[in-house]
Amino acid sequence: MEIVCLDLEGVLVPEIWIAFAEAVGIPELKRTTRDEPDYDKLMKFRLGILKEHGLGLKQIQDTIATIDPLPGACEFLDALRERTQVLILSDTFTQFATPLMKKLKWPTILCNTLEVAPDGTITGFRMRCEQSKLTTVKALQSIGYDTIAAGDSFNDLGMILNSRNGFLFRSTDAIKAEHPEIPAFETYDEFLNAILGVLE
């Protein structure tokens, strides 16, 4: 029995923080897990910038409302879900993900939670578990699933390298150079064919 575990941002939807950085004109917020392997460090950096500029959850959600799935992502996901179970594993937050899941026809997602004050200030964040993507893949394997994992960033490498099959999708040149053993794809057609090719 197989289950496909997909990253969200950069794979199915644009990077939320990059879109928000462009919307509010703060280029520092364009830093993502493609640039910073330490997610805790990255989030604390982001929250510091939000506090400095007086920005909160509402402003980010206003930007998210304008974000659509990447061209071809819905069709890719539909075709994949016709053949196998798909689980989205993301380091994003429920407060960000819900409107995007609606646009993707409500796939199952496991992600994290923001701590938000009554005035909308983001005061912190709660990770679902440590190394959530890798931990989830290992948990799925422990109950009899063969995992097939794909993503684009440093924080996806754990689940990719520890799955029966793993892929990079629209990743960076640096990550692809560091991991030439991981098949890398740029189009949804190639990506879908690669995943379908390893399903039993």
Describe the structure.
It is a single chain. The protein is of the alpha/beta class and 200 residues long. The protein folds into two domains: 2-13 and 70-198, Rossmann fold (3-Layer(aba) Sandwich); 17-64, thrh gene product, domain 2 (Alpha-Beta Complex). The chain contains nine helices and seven strands; from the N terminus they run βααααβαββαβαβαβα. It has helices at residues 16-24, 39-53, 57-64, 73-83, 94-103, 132-142, 157-161, 173-178, 188-198; strands at 2-6, 85-93, 108-116, 122-126, 146-151, 165-169, 184-185. It has a seven-stranded mixed sheet, sandwiched between helices. The protein is globular, with a radius of gyration of 17 Å. The mean pLDDT is 94.
Quick structural gist:
This protein has helices at 16-24, 39-53, 57-64, 73-83, 94-103, 132-142, 157-161, 173-178, 188-198, and strands spanning 2-6, 85-93, 108-116, 122-126, 146-151, 165-169, 184-185.
Give the helices and strands, then pairings:
Blueprint: E1 2-6, H1 16-24, H2 39-53, H3 57-64, H4 73-83, E2 85-93, H5 94-103, E3 108-116, E4 122-126, H6 132-142, E5 146-151, H7 157-161, E6 165-169, H8 173-178, E7 184-185, H9 188-198
Parallel strand pairs: 1-2, 1-5, 2-3, 5-6, 6-7
Antiparallel strand pairs: 3-4
Low-confidence stretches: none
Can you tell me the CATH class of the largest domain?
A: Alpha Beta
**Which oligomeric form is depicted?**
single chain
User: Can you count the helices?
Assistant: 9
The main β sheet shows up as: 7 strands, mixed
